[in-house]
Amino acid sequence: MAQIELREIDETNLDAVLSIAVRTDQEVFVGGGVADALADADAYPEANPWYRAIYADATPVGFVMISWDVVPQPPAIIGPWYLWKLIIDAEHQQRGYGRATVRMVIELVRREGASELLTSYVEGRGDPGPFYARLGFKPTGERDENGEIILAHQL
């Protein structure tokens, strides 16, 4: 696997990052593309969105967004640390980039003093539940306002 890094999104890489897309059958699980995630970040500033492009060497292969140390405001704002969006481009899946990114995010929030990282997913055939389970996330027994299963990774 190529070395991955998380890079800020700016005018030099915005178009490339916006072109990142999952397979059509996975769209239900990511709730839209990168443009939708950036729009959500603008619409919910109280969620303190922190987002980055995922690069493998010099190639943008994905996008990640978290709520950064927020005061939870259920049901709309989950936190304080919430993996809000993870998108790995269809052409770059099954190479370990998603797993490596989640591990990077876990270490990042751990260094910031987080005790757990939350995320959620839509149930369905091919859903990311097993992916998150392999990374140590466990169901909390709660669901978000859209019925997604909320998971927690204890840090």
Structure description:
This protein has helices at 14-18, 27-30, 34-43, 97-111, 129-134; strands at residues 4-7, 49-56, 59-67, 82-88, 116-121, 138-143, 149-154. The model has no long low-confidence stretch (mean pLDDT 94). It has one domain (4-154): Gcn5-related N-acetyltransferase (GNAT) (Aminopeptidase), CATH 3.40.630. It is built from five helices and seven strands; from the N terminus they run βαααβββαβαββ. The longest helix is centred in the C-terminal third of the chain and has 15 residues, at 97-111.
CATH fold-level label: Aminopeptidase
Total number of helices: 5
What is the share of helical residues?
25-40%
Global morphology: globular
Rounded to the nearest angstrom, the distance between the terminal CA atoms is 25 Å
* Structure summary, number of beta strands: 7
Query: Main beta sheet: strand number and arrangement?
Result: 7 strands, mixed
CATH homologous superfamily (4th level) name: Gcn5-related N-acetyltransferase (GNAT)
Strand order of the largest sheet: 1-2-3-4-5-7-6
Low-confidence stretches: none
The average pLDDT is 94
Computed over alpha carbons, the radius of gyration is 14 Å
Give me the strand/helix succession. EHHHEEEHEHEE
Secondary-structure-based class equals: alpha+beta
Q: Please tell me the CATH architecture by its name.
A: 3-Layer(aba) Sandwich
Task: Describe this protein with a few key phrases.
155 residues, Aminopeptidase, 7 strands, 7-stranded mixed β-sheet, single chain, 5 helices, globular, alpha+beta
